[in-house]
Structure formats: structure tokens, C-alpha cells
Specification:
Number of helices: 20
Largest sheet: 2 strands, antiparallel
Strand content: 5-15%
CATH architecture of the largest domain: Up-down Bundle
CATH class of the largest domain: Mainly Alpha
Helix content: 55-70%
Shape: globular
CATH topology of the largest domain: Cytochrome Bc1 Complex, Chain C
Structural class: mainly alpha
Strand order of the largest sheet: 1-4
Amino acid sequence: MSSENLTSSVADTNAGEPAAAKKGNPAGKVANWADERLGLATLAKKNLRKVFPDHWSFMLGEIALWSFVVLLLTGVFLSLWFKPSMAEVEYMGSYDQLRGVPMSEAYASTLDISFDVRGGLLMRQMHHWSAMLFIAAMLVHMMRVFLTGAFRKPRELNWVIGGLLILLGILEGFAGYSLPDDLLSGTGLRIADGLVKATPVLGTYMSFFMFGGEFPGDDIIPRLYIVHVLLIPGLLLALIGAHMLLLVFHKHTQWPGPGRTEKNVVGYPMLPVYAAKAGGFFFIVFGVTALMGGLLSINPVWKYGPYDPSKVTAGSQPDWYMGIAEGLLRIMPGIETHLWGHTLSWNVFIPGQLMPIVLLMIVLSWPFLEAWVTGDKREHHLLQRPRNAPTRTAFLAAMMSIYGLLWAAGGNDILAVIFHLNLNHITYFMRVAVFVVPVLVFILTRRWCISLQRSDEARLLHGYETGIIMRSPEGGYTERHLPVSEASAYTLTARQRDQVYDAGADADANGVSRDGSRIARIRARLSRGMFENNVQKPTAAEIEDAHHHADEVHELEHAMEGHSADGHQFDGRHPVDGEELRNH
């Protein structure tokens, strides 16, 4: 080959550069341009292969997330026809019973959505049911997180975010069901006006600012609409985004088991498994919500009529998540203070404004209280069984009893009518029960958890009960026990031993008081209350001694004439292929 041809041949090659198509894919060019500037490919590759554990209890948070998505979708549909105005119009729609009745544009547009917009009533009811499901799923999800200790370091901030999400969800729900301006929602706004006015010194000014004058004013519906469709949804989206980012950053918690440690996650990757499951679960939530919206009537505003400040719907009740505030208001004694010509309505301010926030703050502060009492600074990615944290589990049970009692107290009039009881007797009973019942529930739940701990200890040391009864040569009867499986033993022992904090002496060797001795004594007292009665997991030596003793008993049993233990292999927990009972 001549030098000229060789030079031409080299010029026609890539000369060390990678081969590229003459005509590139436009979408690929755009993706490559974005990746070179943002590094999206590396980020996506890392996160799309992220592993998530698989357990049914982890789906509770997903229910809340997908319910919020359904809320956004149905809310966009409703916003196209709803008119957030308190201007008075005469209704001329298709609902005969209210035709010709003067009402606000908000209420008239709600009736039009329900009866004249194709699919409007379905969307209204789906929106309302998904709001119920959103708050309920968040509450149950937080209960799961609390019971399993998933709020411990490094997830304390995510726990607080969850509490704020519930608070915002409740406020969003209240603003939403107040928008139709019907008689029931107007009654709820009247209660809210009373709560605001009970604020010392500033109450009247705050009420006038909210309603644009004396209740009901002309501005509350437009202002609630902005709060409902813009302000609170924006905050919810921001907090949900922060919640999910922290979830990815901290990695997901998991239940203890073989192969699972504090430093790994055993489960399925985001793509393709987890994404497919999550996507399918969204359609399940959407379908169930659509089914409820189509078959189960909720908030039939046409039965209540337009709001009139001079009327109240008989047996009116708020949505269930407002029941705690309603119950507190109904059972609070009439306590007022008159100072310098002003009345301070403690019977409204304390139950309506102060106590709900106090109860929420107690729950949100628990992770920090527990970390301070235990002095535990380690990161925790393995979950705890509720029985292994008796005090925490009992505390949640007590809080649930308070919530249930106040919920029932909020319907004391309904209970009195249905069960033919005296309304005052119900109120007096609730005033005592909210202090007595939670204490009893706390004690019983704590003892129950400790009993379950003892049961786990017995299973580890002595094995599980096979149901096979043996008779000794002396005529005594005992039940055959067999060791639990290695996987069960791992699960039962995958927990830390509780350490009771010791405050030490109040003074040093020279009789000088130690700094912080009083706080240390408080911390020691709380530590003893939390952990002193707990049943700690057996040590390795105790388990070895118990198994050695069991082996000796097993040898003695088989050494006995007649082999009275025969049949234990048919206990349903072991393979029995080829096994036969001996003939006696």
C-alpha cells in the first residue's frame, strides 16, 4: 500500500475517538446534555437501585401518600366549578327542594357540582373520603412508627415532620368542609369563631380579621379557599417532600431477622420491583376511594340547607378527626375569670386551643425524652417489637384511650338519644374517665407487654409447647417442649438489653453536692420506671445452659422403657416423611 493510500485510510478512521452515529437520537442528545450539566444519570443509577424492605406495615405510609395524590386530582376537578364567594344568589338549579331559596354562591355552586356537573357528586365524595383516609392513614402510620421505635436517632426530625403533617391535614380538612357554606359547616365555623374569641386580649381582633367584620362576615369563604387550595397544600407538599428525602437519606427501617443488621437493608430494589408494587398500590387506593365515593354517601349538604346564623342542625357533628377538640369543649366545666371588666373564658380557651396542642407536643417530644432518659446516642435502623418497649407501648395505649373517650364525649348528645341516657350523667362520667381510664390502660398494657416478654424468654430457654403429654414412671405428666427454630431465636434475641440509669451519690467524697444532681435523680427515676421491670433477653450462657439441660432431659426420656416421648415428631413443625409410630 502506498503512503498516500495509507494516509487516506488513517484519515477515514476515528483516530482513537469512540464511534458515534452520524444522526443521533434527539431525545438522547437532550438527555446527554442534561446529564453532563446536572449529573442525573449517576444520581438516578444510585437511587433507582435503592433497596426497600418488604412488610405490610410499611404500606400504611403509602396509603397516606396516595390518598394525598387522590386529593390533589379530585381537588383540581372541583376547583373548576366551585365559586368561593359569599355573595347572595337565588338558587335555580335542578334540586327542587331548594329552588328559589336565597343562598351564597359557594353553596349554590356546591349544589351545581353535586347535581348538574357530570361526575361532580362522585368527585366531591371521593375528595371527602380521601381526606378522611389521608388523616387516618397518617395517624395509624405514626402509631406504627411509635410502637416500633422507628423515631429513634437519626429519625427524630422526620417524627416531628409527621406530627406537623397531621396538624396541617386536620386544618386542611376543617377549611375544606367549611367551604360549601351549608348549615353544618357554618355551625363548625361558629365554634371556630368562639375558640378564636376566647383568646385573652387579642381574641376579638383576631375574629374580626378572619371574618372581615362581625361573624359571619363576607370574607371567610374566599380566605378559607385560598388557605385550602394554595397555602396548606403548598406546606403539605414541602413537608412530604422533606419527609421522603429524609427517608431515602436515612434508609428505611426493617424488622430484625437473619441477615438483617443495623448497617444493611434486606429487600427489593426501587426498579423494577418496588416501583411496580407502589404503582399498583396507588391504583388500589384510587379504586377503593372511587368505590367509597360512588357507593357511600358523605356530607350531603343539600339536606342541611344554606347557612343561617340563627339555626343549628340537630345532632350536628364535625368530621371524626375534630372529635378530640369537640369532646374537650363539651366536658370542660364552665370556668371563667373576670378581670377589669373583661371575661376570660378558660372553659373555651383551655379545651379548644391549649389542650390539643399540649397533647400533640407530648407525643412529638417523646423521642427526645426517651433519648435523654436512656442516654442512647446510637443510630437505630432495626425496629423493636412493641412488647420489648412496655412503657412506650403503654403510653400510646393510654393516649389512644384519651382520644377515644374525648371522641365519645364529642357525641354525648347522640349517645344520650340512642341509648336513652341522661346527658349530664354522660358528661360527668367523661370528666372522671379521661383521668382514670388512661391510667388503668397504661398499667394493664404495660403488664401485658412484660408478660409477653416472659413468654418469649420461656420459649428461648425451654422451647415451644408441642401439645404432646408424657407420663413419667412415677405417674406425673409433663408436656414435651422442642427448641424454637434458629430464625425465631434470632428474632427473639435481636434487641438491646435495657440499661437502668444510675444517678450515683448526690455528693462527692468531700461532701460537696454534685452539679445537676437533682436532674440526674429525675432521670434515674424515669429510667427505673421505664426499664426496671422489663424482662431482659437471656444471655448466651443462659441459653446454652438451658439447651444443655434440654438435651439431658431428651436423653433420659429416650432411655426410658416404652419411649413415652414417641410421637413428638408429628407436632406439625417437622418433616415426617418415613416416620412411623412404634408399636407398643
